[in-house]
Amino acid sequence: MATRILFLTAISFCLIALNISNLSAQSATDALRYSETTFGGTARSMAVAGAFGAIGADFSTAANNPSGIGLYRRNELSFTPSIFTNANEVQYVNSTQNQSGTRFNFTSMGYVFSRQPQNNLDWQNVNIAIGFNRLANYNSNRTMYGPEAPTSMTQFFAQQGKGSYYGDLGIAAGLVTATNNQPLAPQGGLYQLERMENSGGHDELNLAVGANYRNNLLIGASLNIPLINYKNQLLFTEDDKYNKFGNFSHFNLLDEIHASGTGINAKFGATFIPTNYLRIGVAAHTPTYISFEDVYSTSLTTHLDNSNDTYGDDDYGIYTYALVTPWRVTGSLGSILGKNGFVNADIEFVNYGSTRYNFNSSDANEIEYENFINSQIETAYGSAVNIKVGGELALNMLRLRAGYALYGSPFKNLNKQGRQNITGGIGLRGKNIYADLALVHSFYERYYQPYNLENITVPTAVINTTNNNAVLTVGFTF
After folding, report:
1. Which whole number is the average pLDDT over 139-144?
2. Given Cys at both, which of 47, 188, 308, 468 links 438, Cβ 3.0 to 4.6 Å?
3. DSSP string spanning 112-136?
4. Which domains does the chain have, with CATH numbers?
């Protein structure tokens, strides 16, 4: 049996030639990925689920409520490596697949310079902090398997139509007939397999200033530079494993993208200390302006029976654009339990629907797509409330910590619970050195469709994700 192999790679330059442009690389899903953050930083703060908004004196506050930097009395240098494990369970077309992976990361590194102003009894300390905190981890692998899927991606190619990017791609690859625009698998029934590998993270460089006024008021501000690195490789396969279509064997669709982003934002905070036991914190984070460069490619390899012709093309694409993420506002309430520890609760408000793309282009097609995708973001996403609670118990040199965080769902029309985090940890405090260990267990559920069809229901995959993060901080005070 002869085999026909058609190989077609298409990227931005090809898209521009088709007047579709490389805008298909940007989506509402990408906007949400880069807008969502979680608690990161030192092991001490992560052990209490990031609930540090009114407590202060921890480097992680530079990324949350920078007024907490004002509570430092001594200089400090800290390092925080971690081991991150991701596991995904995917339920799709009566099949369940499990996959996991482990990565080593640095979640925080910081230096705090503490200064006591001379000849000024009102200002106890004016401190400067510099370093970085990790706000999101993109490392994730998953496999999705559908033994006899009721639909086919060849239907998607056909519905896009001749003259569209994916429509012409399907015709050129032999998956759609050029004469009457019919897919090779109009009724589904194919073996489907999708493998996705993600890597990278969202780190933020922090330069913060915090001041302590009469031990009654802390104020602070930080200038921050987010650094985003995201790599994705997605392989989607459909195979006529059951010989239902005589002229069709299988095809592989491979999408690869490497997105690099650099941004800027500012954060402001204040902490009120009305009594020795009570602290009230507020913080506001401005929208982050992020400039991205995407390098990506799409390749489609199709195997058909009854021919041995080979066609090929190979290229790559680069596209630059900007994304503006939402405002964030946080309120905090904490209590200092003398020398026995603390408890704290944070509540954060964020509207993911206000995220916006800016393609910085005068091209009519790009302006049209920019408006379209921004409208999609506003329709799909809404406001979310994130709640973090945690506490620390001090027993001489030993510290015991625990916390819980619930991140509200960003989706406007899905009444589903968001990400949950259960945390705990221990610490040892010496005169000039300390060590903290934290364990973070997080879990959430998401939905996914490999493609969309008009007037035809596509199976939805249910993805249950579990992440575990072991974090160690070693710090020195002087």
Report:
1. 95
2. 47
3. EEEE--TT-SSEEEEEEEEEEEEEE
4. 3-152+188-477 (2.40.160.60)
